[in-house]
Design brief:
heterotrimer, A alpha/beta (512), B mainly alpha (327), C mainly alpha (367), A: 512 residues, alpha/beta, Rossmann fold, 17 helices, 33% helix, globular, C: 367 residues, mainly alpha, ABC transporter involved in vitamin B12 uptake, BtuC, disordered C terminus
């Protein structure tokens, strides 16, 4: 392996955005006939590095060589010319175009557009690797995994033999993931170089031949997958021996707070996202929600929060002093007017939870601006609240009149969580609360959530990191394809059990 | 009895400036640029042609060479509208300025430009009416096929127009073909729908936007030229072109961004625009008839949004500036 | 080598306000220099003298100052009207039509009810009718935007022309004398429905009304719950829904307000100064207002200066045209040029250019 010329050799690659160093003198080798897993926490610079290879960004410093020759990649076109193709996490497809039109987009094969020839070539590629693509289908009619397939075919159509996939499995079901992996293995045996960006250990172990680790924009090291293990890789990723030790106080006097019964939700396209979901959430308890990304977590939380139209089912809220309230069919305002203090930390912080261009004060006001009689808003108490959140959660900001967009991810999340907690909720919904946060900030968030639990709040915590879920949650609700695969005790279950339940209803041989 | 044979040629002649404008604006919008400066550009196109023709007619004292009388106004019209297109692109693409504001400013500028130079020429020509007549040039532009008159109603309806009218139809059909059937068109549409996608596919966004908008401006400018030289028989009077530029934008919506549909729709619009002349009605009612094209456009706009068929929507990134590192 | 590699553009974090205004100021100065060049080239006149004449024309006599203030008031009023919608990212370019239709409603009341009801009642009816007409005209596109996401820019644009034709229709229906093609001064003898004049100052009422409106709009946008909701909806509809703001309701309510303020402009034009209605009574100010609002970054106080600049240019230009025998449209050219410079200058406020010292190595120097 060592005496082979790498297909791609990146040397001393540095890229900064403003004063954030996204990549700092990174070295990376990519070989043909090999699947390389590029591993790293969120914000470690994996995507930025690959974007420089695919011509989206241009490095500030450093060199890139392809097959031993130094090259300059200024645009995606340059990258294609070198046989490099990238499948982005956010698909780059034109909705109103057909699959074939998207695939030939940007190619210069003479002026005439021969869609028939293109369709034939697409079918040939599909046959080679076992894809299923209808060249004439419009992208807006496609499922996520179909769109991803189009992206892959698009890259192959251009004759790419160095493929980069940015977290390709985040949106796929287990079956689709298996199919994708089979295709990637086919490509490997075809002599192509494959890079898969991920932070999921089991995928690395399952698929890759070699693994390279980035941490805080720096290259930490690479090794053969079979010579390492999950523990070592995690340590490299995080930078120190990780002993995830999250406090888990015993629930005090848990009482039924929220009861969800037979919830079924379809999205705008009529696809069932949740099917017959039932569970209860108790006060003073953290209910973890596990599942592969896109299995209905978002819809579940949004349905409870009154943001998602529901087909059938009920969500009953039990007040601390007795009495019950049906939440379904009410919008967030109506729920609040019923006196139910339901806080929600959504996944999309700047697109939903906060307004990026507004300052901290105005963002605090989002929840409270209706308070008080008369037509005027009160900015005094939100300002106080902002100052308090900044002080309590040590938010790193020049001041409370700084637009939140300028804060770093961790600080943005602190502002959002701080505001949601300040409302003294009885139910707290969080979605991927530590996504993109460094370890320190993550621990702050875990602490805050535990404090809420001890204060008697019913917490529903949707997470993606199973280790955290297992240490933080009292009970874990496992979703699989929009259905409840099972509810397990966080203290007794194992990662393996939950993992199985995530991929298969009921978890196969595992029993509750 | 409704005089159809009389009506259709009038409708066509009304429709041709709209067709030029709409084809130009469609090309522009397909690249994601909502150019509200089209009305101004059509003025500039018109007056540039007039200036060229005026200077030429003055210099040769009325004995015009047909080829030059054609070419000089044509080239000056194209040059004038190209400059306007470049200005719009520089502001909105290179400097990423707000498209609505830029377009409106260009319309203010363009109409002012047209009327100012129109006024200056009128003064220069020393005419006692507030207009200039370029009859020699106009004669060249509006010359139709000689045998058309012998063919009765057929000739009148199909063959009685100056060459620019046929050019308009040809350009619209070519534009439709390019947009639908060629690689260039596919790329252009991708730029207007999703510049980030097109960028990732290796297309130079700025180049496509500049190209489409500048070509679009030139096509629209020809509409102004046709209006003066053919429709108005070479007579430029200030503000005579009126609101046709806005009607052209309406036509783009009406045809759901399809230049080939514009060919017939422009005639329909032209017909609606002059219908009042052919329907016996009071003076006041005529004004109501003139409302028709706009009402029809609104209805089309509503219907297409209610049906929300993706193909009939405006290009998705219409009106938005593209900045690669903001994603 | 690719030309793009010479420099690199990035978004600025934020510029202190004085730097931003320095850039805008520099743009205006540059624009004035370019305009001076154009003036000399196009007319052969001394540009300094021309500018002197412009100032004379705009501010030379008390009467001219009053006219300037009146024009300023109307333009500012329409700019105020479109601003709440713009803050919500609803691109209402239909102010022209909204003003026209309310002017028509106002004139209709004056013509039809002029001798039937007492003057005070008539004025109340006129106010109600104008405001309602403007609001209705604005809420139609808003309804379809809220319900079906119909493109509002194109819709409001079309509504302008429908309004123009409606006015054209009624101008002929009510023309005086028959065949004149215009309405003429309404209720010339009785002055029924004429808004009261304060002292000897014909325009003072309009100016005061708009001054009050400016303050109200400033307060509304910045200090009220409605204003806050508008800002949230404009930034992110999802966030708005997340905190329980009913987006459809806010869109419709805001456009009702927008149209209503246009209605006030129509009322002031017909009832206050012109006492007649024509298809050109709005005079393109519905479009100019879009630029005013945008130039001032949707800030009502900034809009005072933005509209002053544009009105000053317009008045000055019409003075040039009479003094030097130039065509009135010369002012439009100058306005256009100045706008281009201001529009272009925003780039340097929002973005930063970095020039690569050596394209190959990618070293960058900030400029």
């Amino acid at each position: 392996m060592e005496n082979k010329t790498p297909a791609v050799a990146m040397r001393d690659i540095t890229k900064t955005f403003g004063n954030i160093v996204a990549n700092d003198k990174v070295w990376l080798d990519i070989y043909r006939g090999e699947i390389l897993a590029l591993l790293g926490e969120n914000g470690s610079g994996k995507t930025t590095l690959m974007n420089m290879l695919s011509g989206i960004y241009f490095p500030d410093a450093g060199t890139i060589s392809v097959d031993g020759k130094e090259v300059v990649i200024r645009s995606p076109r340059d990258a294609f010319a070198l046989g490099i193709g990238m499948i982005h996490q956010h698909f780059k497809l034109v909705d109103v175009f057909t699959a074939a039109e998207n695939i030939v987009l940007g190619l210069k094969e003479g002026g005439k557009l021969d869609m028939k020839a293109a369709a034939a070539k697409i079918r040939a590629i599909c046959d080679t690797y076992g894809f299923d693509v209808d060249p004439d289908q419009k992208v807006y009619d496609m499922s996520v995994s179909q769109k991803q397939t189009v992206e892959i075919v698009k890259v192959l159509y251009r004759g790419a033999d160095i493929l980069i996939l940015d977290e390709p499995t985040a949106v796929l079901t287990p079956q689709e993931t298996d199919k994708l992996f089979a295709v990637l293995r086919n490509m490997r045996s075809d002599g192509k170089a494959v890079v898969i960006i991920t932070h999921k250990m089991h995928e690395v172990e399952d698929l890759s031949d070699r693994v390279a680790v980035l941490r805080h924009g720096q290259f930490v090291g690479d090794m053969l997958t079979k010579q390492t293990n999950a523990q070592e890789m995690t340590n490299m990723m995080v930078g120190h021996a990780v002993t995830l030790n999250i406090r888990r106080p015993e629930p005090k006097n848990p009482r039924k707070r929220l009861e969800v019964k037979n919830l079924t939700v379809r999205n705008v396209d009529g696809i069932v996202k949740l099917e017959d979901v039932s569970f209860t959430a108790n006060s003073g308890e953290i209910l973890g929600v596990a599942g592969i990304s896109g299995c209905g977590q978002k819809e579940l939380l949004e349905a409870i929060a009154g943001l998602q139209p529901v087909e059938t089912g009920s969500v009953t809220y039990y007040e601390p002093d007795g009495g019950a309230e049906e939440l379904l069919g009410k919008d967030p305002l109506a729920i609040a007017e019923k006196g139910v203090v339901l806080s929600f930390v959504p996944e999309d912080r700047l697109g939903m939870g906060l307004v990026g261009s507004m300052d901290l004060t105005d963002n605090m006001m989002l929840r409270s601006f209706r308070r008080g009689k008369g037509p005027f808003v009160d900015r005094k108490s939100p300002k106080k609240l902002a100052e308090q959140v900044v002080a309590d959660l040590s938010v790193n900001t020049p001041g409370v009149s700084t637009p939140v967009r300028r804060l770093s991810g961790g600080n943005v999340q602190k502002v959002l969580v701080g505001r949601e907690i300040a409302a003294a909720p009885t139910v707290l919904l969080t979605a991927y609360a530590v996504r993109g946060l460094d370890i320190g900030a993550s621990y702050t968030i875990y602490d805050l959530i535990n404090q809420q639990k001890e204060a008697g709040v019913a917490v529903i915590y949707v997470g993606e990191d199973l280790d955290v879920l297992l240490e933080l949650s009292d009970r874990i609700l496992v979703l699989c394809g929009g259905k409840v695969s099972g509810i397990v005790d966080g203290r007794r279950t194992s990662k393996r059990e939950v993992g199985l339940m995530m991929t298969k209803l009921g978890g196969g041989d595992a029993n509750e | 009895m409704f005089d159809l044979v009389g009506f259709i040629p009038r409708a066509v002649m009304q429709g041709i400036p709209l067709l030029f404008g709409a084809t130009g604006e469609t090309l522009t919008e397909k690249s994601g640029n909502l150019n509200l400066g089209i009305p101004g550009i059509m003025y500039v196109g018109g007056i540039s042609g007039v200036i060229g023709a005026f200077l030429y007619e003055q210099s040769c004292g009325g004995n015009v060479v047909p080829a030059l009388a054609l070419l000089i106004p044509l080239l000056s019209c194209l040059a004038g509208s190209l400059l306007m297109g470049l200005l719009y692109c520089f502001l909105t693409v290179t400097l990423r300025a707000n498209q609505n504001v830029t377009g409106l400013a260009m319309t203010t500028f363009g109409v002012g430009f047209g009327n100012f130079f129109g006024g200056s020429l009128i003064k220069l020509s020393g005419a006692d009416v507030p207009s200039i007549a370029l009859s020699a040039t106009s004669a060249v532009f509006s010359r139709s096929l000689g045998f058309a008159e012998k063919l009765g109603w057929f000739g009148q309806i199909f063959l009685s127009y100056g060459f620019l009218a046929y050019t308009a139809v040809a350009i619209a059909l070519i534009a439709a073909f390019i947009l639908k059937r060629t690689r260039l068109g596919l790329h252009l549409r991708a730029v207007g729908e999703s510049p980030a996608t097109a960028d990732a596919a290796g297309l130079n966004i700025a180049r496509y936007k500049y190209g489409a908008t500048c070509v679009g401006s030139m096509v629209a400018g020809l509409g102004g030229l046709y209006y003066v030289m053919d429709y108005a028989c070479g007579v430029w009077s200030n503000n005579a072109f009126g609101d046709r530029g806005w009607l052209a934008i309406a036509l783009v919506i009406f045809t759901v961004w399809r230049p080939n549909v514009s060919v017939l729709a422009s005639i329909l619009f032209g017909g609606l625009y002059i219908l009042y002349l052919f329907i016996p009605s009071g003076m006041a009612d005529k004004e109501l008839y003139k409302m028709l094209p706009y009402i029809v456009t609104i209805i089309v706009l509503i219907i297409s949004s209610v049906r929300s068929k993706k193909e009939n929507q405006p290009p998705q990134s219409l009106g938005l500036a593209y900045f690669r590192e903001e994603r | 080598m690719n030309k793009e590699s010479r420099f690199h553009i990035s978004k600025r974090k934020a510029l202190p306000w004085y730097k931003a205004w320095a850039i805008r100021g520099a743009a205006i100065v540059l624009a004035l220099i370019v305009c001076a060049l154009i003036t000399t080239l196009a007319t052969g006149l001394n540009p300094l003298k021309v500018y002197g004449t412009m100032i004379q024309g705009a501010l030379g006599t008390p009467r001219k100052v009053w006219t300037l203030m009146q024009n300023l008031a109307i333009l500012l009023c329409i700019s105020l009207a479109v601003t709440p919608a713009f803050r919500m990212r609803f691109w209402n370019i239909g102010a022209e039509g909204q003003v026209l239709i309310s002017a028509l409603a106002c004139a209709a009341c004056m013509i039809l009810l002029g001798d039937k009801v007492p003057n005070a009642v008539l004025i109340l009816i006129m106010i109600a009718a104008s405001v309602a007409a403007g609001a209705i005209w604005a809420v139609i596109p808003a309804f379809f935007k809220a319900k079906f996401n119909t493109n509002e820019t194109l819709f409001t644009l079309m509504m302008n022309y429908v309004a123009t034709q409606l006015v054209a229709y009624f101008v002929i229906v009510w023309e005086v004398p028959k065949g004149a093609g215009k309405i003429g001064i309404i209720n010339q003898s009785t002055q029924a429905g004429w808004l009261p004049q304060i002292g000897d100052y014909k325009y003072l009422l309009n100016i005061l009304v708009v001054a009050v409106l400016t303050v109200l709009m400033y307060v509304y946008l910045n200090y009220t719950k409605h204003g806050y909701e508008i800002a949230v909806v404009g930034e992110s509809e999802r966030t708005a829904r997340y905190v329980g703001i009913k987006v459809e309701k806010v869109i419709i309510r805001t456009l009702l307000l927008s149209g209503a303020v246009c209605g006030v402009a129509g009322l002031l034009l017909v009832g206050g100064t012109d006492h007649t209605v024509t298809t050109t009574i709005a005079g393109g100010r519905g479009f100019t207002a879009v630029m005013v609002s945008w130039l001032a970054k949707f800030n009502p106080i900034g809009m005072i200066f933005a509209s002053l600049l544009l009105v000053f240019l317009g008045r000055g230009a019409s003075e040039i045209s009479t003094v030097y025998g130039l065509n009135n449209s010369f002012g439009d050219i100058l306005t256009g040029v100045i706008l281009f410079f201001i529009i272009g200058s925003e780039f340097f406020i929002n973005y930063q250019l970095h020039f690569r010292v050596k394209a190959e190595k990618g070293g960058e120097a900030n400029v």
